[in-house]
Design goal:
- By secondary structure, the protein is α/β, with parallel strands linked by helices.
- The protein has a single domain (7-345), classed as TIM Barrel (Alpha-Beta Barrel).
- It is built from eleven helices and 13 strands.
- It starts with 6 loop residues before the first strand and ends with a helix.
- It binds zinc ion.
- Zinc ion binds at residues 15, 17, 78, 167, 192, 236.
Amino acid sequence: MSNLSNTTPGLVCAHHHLYSSLARGMPAPPRTPAGFTDILELVWWRLDRALDLEGIRWSAMLGALEALERGCTAVIDHHESPEAIEGSLDVIAEACAEVGVRVDCAYGVTDRHGPEGARRGLAENERYLRAGGRGRVGVHAAFTCTDETLESAAGLAAELGVGVHIHVAEGETDAGAADRLRNLTADDWLLVHGVHLADDHGLTGTIVHNPRSNMNNSVGYSRPARFTNPVALGSDGIGADMLDEFRVAYVRHREDDVTASPEAAWSYLATGWDLFPEALGDQVTWSHDPMDPWHLAFSPGVSPLQVEVDGRVVWADGSATRVDADEIRARAAEEAVRLHARLEEM
Ligand SMILES: [Zn+2]
């Protein structure tokens, strides 16, 4: 979809981790991670254990604010906080509502903290969704779950009429995911990454491409153009500047295939509106005209002038209208200090 004016619908981040907003500036891990599994174990699986509900709240507030500032009005979030599971999805949903950003929440179920941890994660998804929360059933990834947990998550999602939001074959360590998920997936699943999926993987659902994160984790290029599944675009927790993510997706595609057009990466961005149709009713007025993929691929720094969500102006003249951005940044910075101190003790 191209848009020959300076407006677009609200952009959608199809895979985010709002809890990562306070990770920036965190203490260095005990040793330099030497690969993807190390990055998980030494960085993210330490950070998520240090989160409490107050940290989650300010991390989500900051992440939502930063999304709005870049014209992203809808975030599909994937959350984990093993020491603060119950109620965590409400905290994220409330924080986003306060800022004025739409959110779709999921708690990433995993067996890496034992069967009780998996049960509590599933229960948090169920509690939140049954209470009317917008979201999906989250699963961390097949390689950290038993078959029983994968089946329970798929069953719960089917029962509640929502999809499953799961990392799939991000690193080689999860290359066996397709064989374990083949009989479970459905069209409404979000299959995040797919780097190590075979072309004929046999999974149904939307593949979410996160080019910057994949490069940062050195896991390889998923070459999403090869898939017959719909492909959407996510940030995997590195902000929610989706125009920038589009540019990275384009240039990474082009590096692999010199005939690649920005229309492909733009189509990934547009798939976000199939996943989060409400964002089509939002309007962003941009500093650039036209908002056309061929223009935007070569125009860094295009910014929103105004953002409307559900008919209400939530961002204008360089600042948020519903919340005090300076206060959010200040409170988030205080929470980051607390969080980083807990990490030092771990
Ligand atoms: Zn992710």
